[in-house]
Amino acid sequence: MLQRFFATGLAFFCLAGTAISQTTATPSDSVQKPKIIFTGAADAYYRYDSGKSADNNNTSFTNSQNSFELGMISLKAEHTIGKVGMVADIGFGKRAEEFSYNDGNTRLAIKQLYLSYTLKNSVKFTAGSWATHVGYELVDAYGNRNYSMSYMFSYGPFFHTGVKAEKTFGKTAIMLGIANPTDLKSTSTKSKFVIGQLSTATKNDKVKIYLNYQGGKPTDSVMVNQVDLVLTAALSPKFTVGFDGTITGIQTKRDSEKFGDASEWYGAAVYLQADPLSWLGMTLRTEYFNDDNQLNVFSGAGTGGNILATTFSVNLKSEGLTIIPEIRFEKASAEIYTKSDKATDTCTSFLVAAVYKF
C-alpha cells in the first residue's frame, strides 16, 4: 500500500512538471539526484531447552528457555553519488545489544556506519565500522538459514572499526585494512589490528573461496591471530554446500619482551542447503568446535574439551516473511550442560523463529 502511494504521488508530480513552461527549466532540472535506499528487518523467536536451562546455550542471540523473545529491529540506509557512498545501519533489541557488547549494554546499536570512495582503478577505500568479513554467518537473522548461531561465529569477531582498501581483479579480490581491536568502536589503546581477505570465484560463480585474517594486540600483553576459510559451491540450482574452518591463536607475554607459545581454539562447519520449492528451504549445519585450552566455552569447566553440534532448520517463505522451525543437538566431551539439576554432556533444544525483511 505504501509503495502504491509513493508511486501515485511520483506520477502526479511528473505530470505536473510537464505542465510547467519549458522556459522555467534549467539544465540541472533534468539531472535526478540519487535516492537513499532504505531496507529493514525484524525477528522474534521461541526457544525450549530439553534441560530446562538457558545456561545450556553457549552461542550468541538465543540465550533463553521456554520464553518468547524479541530479536532485533534493523533499519539500513544506503546512498551513493558517483564514486562516494555511505551506509548507516542501526539495530534495536537484545540481538543488537549482544552484537555491540562493548558499547555500554545499550539495546540501540550502530551496527554499521561507514563511508567509501572508489578510485578510477577500481580501488575502493572504506572508513568507519562494518560487519566482519570473517566467517560464514551474519549478524542479521535474514542473512542466515539457521536461526541459532555457530560457535565459530559466537567467539569470532562481530565487526571492525577502521579503514580498509579493496581491489578487484576480475573474479578475484583482495582487501587489506587497519582497525581497532575486535568489536571496539572506540578505544584508547595504541595497538591496532590488521585485517585482510583474499577471495576468488569460478567464471559462473558456482564456487567461491574466501581466505580471511585478523591479527593484533588487544592489550600490550596479549597477541591474537585468526585465520578463516570459507567455501561455497552451488552443485545445482536447488542444492548448495558451504564450509567454514577457522583457527585462533592467543599468545601472552612470559616476560617484558617475549610472547609465549600460542593457545588455540578452532572449529569447522559444513552447511548442506536444499531448496526443493520456491517457498521451502532446508539447512543442515554440522559443527565441530575445539576448546582444549579453555579459552571460551570450557573456561569454567575445569577441563578443556570439544563440542559436536548439529542443527537442522526449515525455512518456510512467504513474501518477505520466513518462518524457521529448528532443532539442535549438541554432544560435548565433558559435562558442561545441566538437566534436572544434574550435569550432562548432551543438550537438545527446539526453537521457532519469525524473520521479516523489507
How would you characterize the overall build of this protein?
- The longest helix has 17 residues, at 2-18.
- This protein has 358 residues and is mainly beta.
- The protein has a 16-stranded antiparallel beta barrel with strand order 1-2-3-4-5-6-7-8-9-10-11-12-13-14-15-18. A two-stranded antiparallel sheet has the order 16-17.
- The chain starts with a helix and ends with a strand.
- Residues 1-30 have low confidence and may be disordered.
- It has helices spanning 2-18, 94-99, 151-155, and strands spanning 37-49, 67-81, 84-92, 108-118, 123-131, 159-169, 172-179, 193-201, 207-219, 222-236, 239-252, 263-277, 280-291, 305-318, 321-332, 337-339, 342-344, 346-357.
- A hairpin with a 2-residue loop joins strand 10 (222-236) and strand 11 (239-252).
- The chain is globular, with a radius of gyration of 23 Å.
Distance between the termini: 13 Å
Which percent band covers the strand fraction? over 45%
What integer value in Å does the Rg equal? 23 Å
List the secondary-structure elements in sequence, H or E. Answer: HEEEHEEHEEEEEEEEEEEEE
Average pLDDT reading:
90
Helix share bin: under 10%
Largest sheet: 16 strands, antiparallel, barrel
Overall 3D form: globular
Backbone structural class: mainly beta
Tally of strands: 18
Secondary structure tally, helices: 3
The strand order across the widest sheet is 1-2-3-4-5-6-7-8-9-10-11-12-13-14-15-18
Residue windows where pLDDT falls under 50 for at least 5 positions: 1-30
